[in-house]
Amino acid sequence: MTYPSQPGYPAPQYGGQPPQQPQQNNLWLIGGAVLTVLIVIMTVILLVVQGTQNDSNSGDGGEDPSGGTNETGDDGGNDGGDDGGDDGGSGPVELTSDACDAYDFGSFEDTYGALDDTSRSESSYNGFGSVDCSFYNSDSTGVTLQISDYETAEDASYLIESIPDYYNEDNGYELSEYTELGDVGYIYTQDSDGWKSIYIHVVTGSLEVKVNTTLWDTESIDEAAATAVLEDFITQSNEMFADLV
After folding, report:
1. pLDDT at residue 151 greater than cutoff 60
2. What does DSSP say about strands 173-177 and 195-204: parallel, antiparallel, or unpaired?
3. For the chain, what percent of residues have pLDDT higher than 90?
4. Which whole number is the average pLDDT over 55-84?
5. What is d(CA 190, CA 68) in angstroms, rounded to the nearest whole number?
6. pLDDT at residue number 46
7. CB 128 within 8 A of CB 151
């Protein structure tokens, strides 16, 4: 009996390169393609998000003019109130030479005429300030004002207590006590040929205010009206520097 011959097996090839594995290369290609697609998708999403944010910001910018108008109107009201408060001597105001500009000159100009010139100076002693202001009309007639701050009310009153020793009748002055606008004070005048000087010197707490004017017969400025101007400057000073009292 004869049997069919068995099929032979190919002999192995030695010394040659092993065959490549095409299945593994395909996996790398597929993975690279997927990664590329993901990168493209993320890039598109990022661009869309940025575009949306820009549109939102542009929309906010468009709303600003209307919102800004409302805010500007509110600020305008506040600024107007603040500016109005600064004028007219309402305080508080820092005790420097700039304070000379903070007074309301309405009363002065009603009596002396238009304000034509101002001079000023400031100083300090032991950390406490003093300011001098002088206001003149076109004829160089005007009012001189001095405001000084002290550590205590006793210090402020120390010098004023000696006024009667110097500004008295023997020295050509007419002197009276004056406490209408201060805790302690005096009003005194000196009359001479062709002119008359008026002084008011008061202390309120630790704040000292001195104000004076010289009236010339040639100008015909009313004495009572000039005295009212001095009192007005004292009143404004007490308000402006109330935090120092």
Report:
1. yes
2. unpaired
3. 58
4. 43
5. 61
6. 67
7. yes
pTM: 0.63
| 54-to-43, 49, 200 alpha-carbon distances in Å | 17, 9, 69
SS3 content of the chain, % helix, strand, coil (to 5): 50, 25, 30
In sequence order, the β-bridge partners of residue 190 are 173, 197
- Token readout for 168 is 């008295």
144's enclosing H/E stretch is strand 142-149
Query: Strand 128-136 and strand 207-216: pairing?
Result: unpaired
Q: Which residues of 96-129 are buried (b: 16+ CB within 10 A; e: fewer)?
A: ebebbebbebebbeebbbeeeeeebebeeeeebb
- CA dist 232 and 105 (Å) reads 9
Q: Identify the pLDDT of residue 27.
A: 55
The pair of structure tokens assigned to 145 is: 């004002």
Which helix (H) or strand (E) segment holds residue 80: the answer is helix 22-86
How far apart are the C-alpha atoms of 98 and 240, rounded to whole Å? 12
Closest CA to 159 of 131, 130, 194, 184: 184
Q: Do residues 86 and 102 make contact, with C-beta atoms less than 8 angstroms apart?
A: yes
Query: Where do runs of H (alpha helix) occur along the chain?
Result: 22-86, 106-112, 153-160, 163-166, 223-240
- Decide: 213 and 195 in contact? Cβ < 8 Å: no
pLDDT digits (tens, 9 = 90+) for 6-64: 344 344 443 334 444 445 555 555 666 667 767 767 776 766 656 666 555 544 444 44
